[in-house]
Every structure is written in structure tokens, then in C-alpha cells.
Amino acid sequence: MSTLALHQVSRWFGDLVAVNDVTMDIGPGVTGLLGPNGAGKSTLIALMSGFLSPSAGSVTLDGEPTWRNPGVYRHLGLVPERESVMEHLTGRAFVRANAELHGLPDPGAAAERAMELVEMNDPASRVIRTYSKGMRQRIKMASALVHEPAVLLLDEPFNGMDPRQRMHLMELLRQMGSDGRTVLFSSHILEEVEQVARQIEVVVAGRHAASGDFGAIRRLMTDRPNHYVVRSSDDRRLAAALVADPCVRGVSLRPTGGLEVEATDFGRFTHVLPRVSRDLDVRLVEVSPTDESLESVFSYLVSS
Ligand SMILES: Nc1ncnc2c1ncn2[C@@H]1O[C@H](COP(=O)(O)OP(=O)(O)OP(=O)(O)O)[C@@H](O)[C@H]1O
Asked: Membrane-crossing residues (predicted)?
């Protein structure tokens, strides 16, 4: 069982701060690293896997620094986002080359085992140039798993996969997590993370914005102020009644018609709105959220 520990880690490139004072522990089981594009996920994964040195702070695996530490690399497997695979090699030769780099006693057998895990034995004799996006993802995965590492890091592994491949990979990650491995994967899609990860770490603009299980992250999201457009048969009367309720922080009339409502308690608002409109005999025509995008959730989390 292995734990990756990041302590006050920052990484800058010239003037740009890609990772800003991040402290987190990644333990056994599956962790999802969630954040919008450019949040610093790939940089964090490169720091964890020892490919990048921190500008400040420390990244350790079971107490050992990951940067320039070959002893640690034996326990780490990395599935990068970019296609760094060799196009002209067969899948088998590619996975086997990694087994040889790790100095495994029987590289051929280790490669077959790893390819079987990701269902890549059949296309293994074809050259990688002919592979689909999903197959490329899986051959990278086999290569990362060939030395049976205790820690597996995957950068946006579900990108480009079809639903069947996606489900298979999710099952594989779950299995590895329950076997006691430390598995971390990055994603910008909450639903993807929700289905596999026991623990979620949210990063926004290089900062660690939130941490917890899916329930905790979801609560943070639903407890934030929510903005809705409400159209009804009598907007003014409805506005006066809504603003009296504690779950509503503000109501304004929109120039184009309807109301803009800011609710602080999503759960309560969903009960209050129909009750108030029924009591007033005002008919609701439209209720739609205006800021449900993941970006707005992220910016709320980072400013709270
Ligand atoms: N080698 C580099 N040189 C300069 N800037 C970099 C470098 N690597 C990353 N960055 C910058 O650091 C920030 C974080 O990038 P990073 O790739 O880690 O984010 P991300 O969350 O993985 O995004 P995406 O999902 O789009 O890959 C970005 O502004 C990026 O442009």
C-alpha cells in the first residue's frame, strides 16, 4: 500500500504559476483529480510521477522524493495524455520494450499479462499507427502496468474512448483500487469521476479547491448560490413572495422579461418555489438554471 504526499507544492514556468501551494495525500484506492482545462492537472501528474521537479515544496512516495529517483519509478506507472507511443512498433513490441527497460526477468510474459488485462492481446501484433484512439489508450495502459506498479497515474484516460471501452477501463480501475493499489486519474468531467473515484481532489487555476468523496463535492456544488431564470404569469407578485424566504438572496426583474433569482439553498428553493406559486395562484412558465456549467462550479469552489 503506497501513499503519494504533496506538501506545499508549487510549480512555475517563467511567470506562469501552473501549480500553487498544493498539499494533498493520495492513498490506496481510486482518486479522481478533477478540474477544468488548464487547471494544472497534467503538471500535478508530472510532478507526482517524478517527470518534473517542484519549484517549491515536496512530492514523495512513501517518504521518498519522486523527482530523479529511479527506486521510486519501479513503483509508479504513468499513462500520459499525449500520444508518446511509437507509431511504427507493434503493440506487443511497445509493451515489451517497457518491460525490458524495467529489467523484468521475463519481459515477454509480463507484456502478455499486461496486454491481457486491457484486452489488447488480439491487436498486439499490429503496428500502433493502425490503432484507434481507444486502443492507443489501452496499449499505453498495458505499458504502464507491465511492472505491476503499486501506484498508477493516468492523465485524462477516458478521452476518445467509446462507451464500452470506457466501462471496461472504469471496471479495471475500480478493481485495481480494491486490490489496494493507489490509482489517480485526471478528468474535467464530474460524472466520469463520480463513477469510479472513492476520493475526489478538485483543482482550479493551479490551486487545490476542494477535497472529499463524491457526496461532499456534490454538496459543495449544490450549497453554492444558484442562479435561475424564472418566468411566470405574474413575475412581480412572485418576486415579492420569493424574496421573503431565507433561501433566496436576491431577485431582480430581467429587462427581457422573467426574474433572475439567486438561491442560497438549492434543496429548499426547489420546495419553496412551487409552494409559493401555488399559494399565490401564479403559474410557472419556465425555471432554468443560468450557471450550471462546471466552470461556474469550479470558480465558486475556488473563491469559497
Ligand atoms: N512546460 C510548460 N511550459 C509553460 N507553461 C506550461 C507548461 N506546462 C504547462 N503549462 C501551463 O500550466 C498551466 C497548467 O497546465 P496543465 O497542462 O497542467 O493543465 P491541465 O489541467 O492538465 O489542462 P488540460 O486538461 O487542458 O491538459 C497552463 O496554463 C499551461 O499552459
From this structure: none
